[in-house]
Automatic annotation (TrEMBL):
Gene3D superfamilies in UniProt: 3.30.465.10, 3.30.70.2740, Vanillyl-alcohol Oxidase, Chain A, domain 4
Protein name: Glycolate oxidase
UniProtKB keywords: FAD, Flavoprotein, Oxidoreductase
Alphabetized InterPro entries for the sequence: FAD-bd_oxidored_4_C, FAD-bd_PCMH, FAD-bd_PCMH-like_sf, FAD-bd_PCMH_sub2, FAD-linked_Oxase-like_C, FAD-linked_OxidoTrans_Type4, GlcD, Oxid_FAD_bind_N
Higher taxonomy: Bacteria, Bacillati, Bacillota, Bacilli, Bacillales
């Protein structure tokens, strides 16, 4: 059902053209179809109009218009999110950030970079590294994801264990609010306690509160050296125990990634880099910093892994080999996605000490529901990616997949964890959010949403579940 009558839609289109220019407003079926889905399997819905504003002021004017006309707004970076967050479930407009893609300033005195939201994440990393600076958050999608998407999802990456995630590098934002106001939060300041921390309210808000139109990010000095090892296991639980043991020995590597045998095989088949496919699990471990410290840590970590029954520990022989291994790990989702028609990846997260228990629980759930689940992820952060290889056309199997994931979320929470460590709630985890936040927590969230977006135009249908249970709905 179209949201607007033809007459109202034509009027809205004319008003949007007035704001953003004729060439930046598209209501053709083919134009709308492109933005009807994102990287989340099984979700699709057509927006009524696609708009690509050129400035923050245009974004603000569009939001004001949408507020006045009760038009849903689905802000979109590159559409790589995995929780249906950019799927325009209730029609309205898709607001594309593609023109707001400039790097505005690299401040070498304050060690900050100021960018527009449509800037590709890797462009930021590559640019600052030329100056021996470092922007650590590195989601595996960084070659295509935008910084606006990273901020709105509070994305993490392979370097999260030592360096944290996107929220840890945000100093200031400019945000367009649903009432058409543009506000600035934070500044190039290490210390700033003036008022509520609005900067971090918008980080991770999944496009449900406002549109980030500019961000100032913190940079740090680039580490001077790094080393990578692979620890190989014939016992998955021994790999899980190694993760806990490394941390318990007060070693904090940059990267501490887990891949199970299914994932290793898929990645090797995809990347052909000589990963051993006959082992049950691999830990990919990276340390960086001054050379002597890296040597010391890597030696000690290797010893810990051997002590926990690693069958072999291999050191990457060159920077190229180390990069190849990291790239291979980043391709895990793409590699697994080749195996079956539908790939559903989740990111249940537990305290690091519970990694072995969570890996065991995932295997038991897969067995119970007779579904195929491969597991890889940022084990050092306790952030696992149980990935179900399935086929959306098989209704019976999809029901079992849904039940299996519900049980995995329940187990993660029981172990002191959470539903999502980095991918966001979106539609897919909305029905379960109350399990994590409780009724009172949900009420606080609703109060914030109501205060900032009283007409509910920002990303409706996301984060707050429409109905108590529905998950993985296919929307035509
Ligand atoms: C192969 C693959 C690997 C991935 N690896 C990782 C990973 O390692 N770590 C990780 O955390 N995630 C990962 N992801 C998920 C995804 O890439 C991240 O969530 C990413 O941050 C999304 O960026 P995007 O530009 O595609 O945003 P989109 O998908 O376009 O949008 C994501 C959310 O941000 C909102 N949004 C976008 N721009 C703005 C803005 N300017 N203001 C306000 N809201 C905005 C949208 O409304 C939506 O709610 C992966 C995805 C894929 C497909």
């Amino acid at each position: 059902m179209p949201l607007h009558s033809e007459k109202r839609l034509n009027k809205l289109k004319a008003q949007l053209i007035e704001i953003a220019g004729n060439e930046n407003v598209d209501d053709t079926t083919s134009g709308r179809l492109v933005y009807s889905y994102d990287a989340t399997p099984n979700f699709q819905a057509l927006p009524e109009i696609v708009v690509a504003p050129r400035t923050a002021e245009e974004v603000a004017a569009i939001l004001k218009l949408c507020g006045e006309t009760s038009t849903p707004v689905y802000t979109r970076g590159s559409g790589t999110n995995l929780c249906a967050d950019t799927c325009p479930l209730k029609g309205g407009i898709v607001l594309l950030m593609k023109h707001l893609n400039k790097i505005l300033e690299l401040d070498r005195e304050n060690l900050t970079i100021t960018v527009q939201p449509g800037t590709i994440t890797k462009e930021i990393s590559d640019l600052v590294e030329k100056d021996d600076l470092f922007y650590p958050p590195d989601p595996s999608s960084m070659k295509i994801s935008t910084i606006g998407g990273n901020l709105a999802e509070n994305s993490g990456g392979l370097r999260g264990l030592k360096y944290g995630v996107t929220k840890d590098y945000v100093m200031a934002l400019q945000v367009a609010l649903p009432n058409g106001e543009l506000i600035r939060t934070g500044g190039k300041l290490t210390k700033d306690v003036a008022g509520y921390d609005l900067t971090h309210l918008f980080v991770g808000s999944e496009g449900t509160l406002g549109v980030i139109t500019e961000a100032t990010l913190k940079l740090i000095p680039k580490p001077e050296s790094q080393k990578t090892i692979l620890a190989l296991y014939q016992d998955i639980e021994a790999a899980g125990r190694s993760v806990s043991a490394i941390i318990a020995h007060k070693m904090i590597p940059v990267t501490l990634e887990f891949l199970d045998q299914d994932t290793i095989k898929a990645v090797e088949d995809f990347a052909h880099i000589g990963l051993p496919t006959n082992v049950k699990a691999i830990l990919l471990i990276v340390q960086d910093g001054p050379k002597e410290i890296v040597d010391r840590d890597i030696h000690k970590i290797a010893e810990i892994c051997r002590g926990e029954q690693a069958v072999d520990v291999r050191l990457a022989s060159s920077a190229e080999e180390a990069e190849e291994l990291a790239t291979a790990r980043r391709s895990a989702l793409s590699a697994l996605a080749r195996l079956k028609p539908t790939t559903i990846l989740e990111d249940a997260t537990v305290p690091r000490s519970e990694i072995a228990a969570m890996v065991r629980a995932i295997a038991e759930v897969a067995q119970k529901y007779q579904v195929r689940i491969s597991t890889f992820g940022h084990a050092g952060d306790g952030n696992l990616h149980p990935t179900c290889l399935t086929d959306a056309r098989d209704e019976d199997e999809m029901n079992r997949v849904e039940e299996a994931f519900a049980e995995i979320f329940e187990k993660a929470i029981e172990l002191g964890g959470t539903l999502t460590g980095e991918h966001g709630v979106g539609v897919t985890k909305a029905p379960y959010l109350e399990w994590k936040l409780g009724k009172a927590g949900m009420e606080v969230m609703r109060g914030i949403k109501q205060a900032i977006d009283p007409n509910g135009i920002m990303n409706p249908g996301k984060v707050f579940a429409d109905k108590a249970k529905q998950r993985m709905v296919t929307v035509k």
